[in-house]
Amino acid sequence: MTRMGDVLAGIHSSWEFDTDAVLIRFERGIRTPKLFHVLGERRIPYEALSSVELTPGPRRGTVALRAVPRPGADPLLDAAGGQLREAVDPYRLVLPAEREALAAYYATELQSALGRDADLDAGYFMVPAPTAPLHFKAFDGKVSFDGKVVSFRWFWTGASSAKWKAGDQSFAVSELAGVDWRSPEAADGHLRLIRRGPDGKPEESDSGEPADQNPAAVVFGLGYGLVHESLPLAASVLEAVQASEEDPCFPHPDSVRDARADPADIAERIRHLGDLHTAGLLTRDEFTEKKRELLAEL
Predict the structure, then answer these.
(1) Alpha-carbon gap, residue 97 to 60, rounded angstroms
(2) For the CA atoms of the chain, what is the radius of gyration?
(3) What are the angstrom distances between the C-alpha of 233 and each of 49, 158, 238, 275?
(4) Which DSSP state fits 196?
(5) 249 falls in which pLDDT band (50, 70, 90)?
(6) Does the bond joining 133 to the residue before it have cis omega, within 30 degrees of 0?
(7) pLDDT score, position 274
(8) What is the DSSP letter of 122?
C-alpha cells in the first residue's frame, strides 16, 4: 500500500490511507449530506473491501473513486439494502477531473491491498455502526436505542388504534433476528424489527403485517424517519443483534418488560385509550383490560 498517512481529498470527504485500513473523514459543510455529518469518520479495513472502481463523476468535470465493501462487512450498508442514493454513498469519493490520474494511482494501490477473501461474503461486521444511544421521530412514534433495548413510544396523533391497544413497546436485542429498513424516500418507508421465534428463526408474521398495524414497526412518512436519522439507528441495532448471538451480557427480554414506566406516560396513554373507547374504536372490555395492564406497569 502507499505510505502511511497519505491523504486523498475530495468533495465532502477525504481518504487517509493507513497500513491496514482507509480512514474516511466527512466534511461538515452546509452542502455535505446530513448522513455524512452523522457518520463523522469511518475506519474501513482493507479486508472489508471486495474491489475498487473509478468512474465518471456525477457532474461534468469530476471522477468518482468507490471502494466496494464485501457483503456482510458493514451494518450500515446491510441495513440500507441498496436503497442509498449515490450522493450519500459513504464509500464514494468525488474528485475534480484533473485529479483523475492521482485517483487512478490510489485505486490501483488500494486494489493491491485487498485481502485474499475479497470475493467472499464477510460473515461478520468489520466496520463499526454508529454508536448508541440513538433516536429519531417516525410518523407514529419515537424510536430509541440505548445499545441493548429498542423502544417505541407511540404518538397519539399518528399511531393506529392497533398500536395504542398494544401499548408502547420495548424489545431487547436478544429477542431480535434483524431489522427491515425501508427508505423514507419510498412510498412505504418504515423501520420494522424482525423478532426471533422460539426456534431462533425470524418470525414470519413480522414481515407480513402492515407496518402501521405492527407494534414492532414504525411508519416514516413525509419529513419523518429521515435517512440520516433512521438508517444509523437501524445499522446500530443490526450490529447489536449480531453481537448478541455471541455475547451473554445482553438483557433477557423479561428484564426489559419488568422496567417501570413513567407515570406521566401511563396517564397520557390511558387518556388516549379513553378517547378511542369514546370513538367506538375500543370496546368497554378492551379499554378496561388495557387500562389494567398500563396501571400494572407503574
Answers:
(1) 8
(2) 22
(3) 23, 21, 9, 32
(4) B
(5) low
(6) yes
(7) 78
(8) -
